[in-house]
Write a structure and sequence with these properties.
Layout: E1 6-7, H1 8-15, H2 19-27, E2 35-36, E3 42-44, H3 46-58, H4 65-79, H5 88-129
Antiparallel strand pairs: 1-3, 2-3
């Protein structure tokens, strides 16, 4: 086995994703192992790990599997080195820009939720330390 390939256990440790989650992403076509060992074990490269990290970062922001696939397809097309049709590069960049804007909005929504949760926790803590409890 080449030193550039990793088995699924190492990939799971590096990405902090479970083996089951990685296999699920493989079943849905979001990531495909770059190779198989002679024994049939999945083998991954740094590129595969980077792809899984994109998926991992999108998940807590509530992106669907289809949205993940659309973003990955756009970035794959841009990174392929293949000649693009006239206007295709701009279309792909516009699609990625849409994901960036959606991510920024979702991050802002999460900040608002976090502030509310922290306020609630502080209210409970104050209640516990107030006289009469």
């Amino acid at each position: 086995m080449s030193s550039e390939h990793m088995q699924i256990g190492e990939v799971a440790a590096r990405t902090e994703l479970s083996l089951r989650t990685i296999r699920h992403y493989e079943d849905t076509g979001l990531v495909i192992p770059s190779a198989r060992s002679q024994g049939g074990f999945r083998l991954y490269t740094e590129t595969d790990v980077a792809r899984l990290m994109v998926i991992r970062r999108m998940k807590p922001l509530g992106f669907t599997l289809d949205e993940m696939r659309a973003l990955l397809d756009a970035t794959d097309r841009l990174d392929s080195g293949e000649e693009l049709l006239p206007g295709e590069r701009e279309q792909l960049l516009k699609r990625i820009q849409g994901f960036e804007q959606a991510a920024q909005q979702r991050v802002e929504n999460l900040r608002t939720q976090l502030a509310r949760a922290e306020d609630f926790a502080a209210t409970l803590a104050a209640r516990l330390t107030s006289p009469g409890c």
